[in-house]
Amino acid sequence: MTGSDVNIEKAEHCDSTLVALAKAGNAPAIDELIRKYWPDAYRTAARILRCHADAEEAAQDVLCSAVSHLATFREDASFRTWIHRITVNQSLMLLRRRHGRADCSSPIPLERVAPLIGGAPTPEQVVLDAEYRTLLEEGLERLPERYVAILQLSVFEGRSTSEIAASVGLSLAVVKARLHRGRARLQQDIGRRLRLYLTEKDELRKRVRHYCPTAASKRAA
Q1: Can you tell me the distance from the alpha carbon of 11 to that of 114, in angstroms, rounded to the nearest whole number?
Q2: CA pair distance 84, 41, nearest whole angstrom
Q3: Domains of the chain
Q4: Which pTM was predicted?
Q5: Which of 18-22, 101-105, 110-114, 124-128: highest mean pLDDT?
Q6: Which of these, 68, 78, 18, lies nearest to 208 by C-alpha position?
Q7: What's the pLDDT tens digit per position in 172-193?
């Protein structure tokens, strides 16, 4: 038995110790937090969403987000409370999406983003969360001003080239040229980071899914 295993056994029922180990990158501690809080996240999501598949999706998203943002957990509340708050927010967002009420955190459609990352993500990677949106916004801020408004209207609002031309008062030809150049510069700037981000999220989601009861039952079958 390794020292790491001993620490995890001692920390099994102590969230503060588990969180400290997880923040330091201890993989067994991260796995233990996922295992421990999967049922809580699922039950909370299921009460709101009333759908097993949606609740599992929400629980996976919540635990991926919690692990990705452990550094922001300030421990002024319990870890259980933090997970509950994230789960409620994620479930309500899914509920709004189900009923067609988009907000500022709504997913960005795949077809608008694929040109920016040099290839299409897999279907599982289509829903772009707040972190992904932030990377895009940061990339836009570094572009010359002549490209920014046009790309914002295209990527975040889904406007057509003719609508953008009318909105910014430029010819259709100029808008098309700036969209092409702006996308190329944005891809060069953040394309690698976006692809790395998607890969990391995919690997984390696989770890989280390992503790999903549905996936576990399929492995046992």
Answers
A1: 43
A2: 7
A3: 3-103 (1.10.1740.10), 110-206 (1.10.10.10)
A4: 0.52
A5: 18-22
A6: 68
A7: 999 999 998 988 888 777 777 7
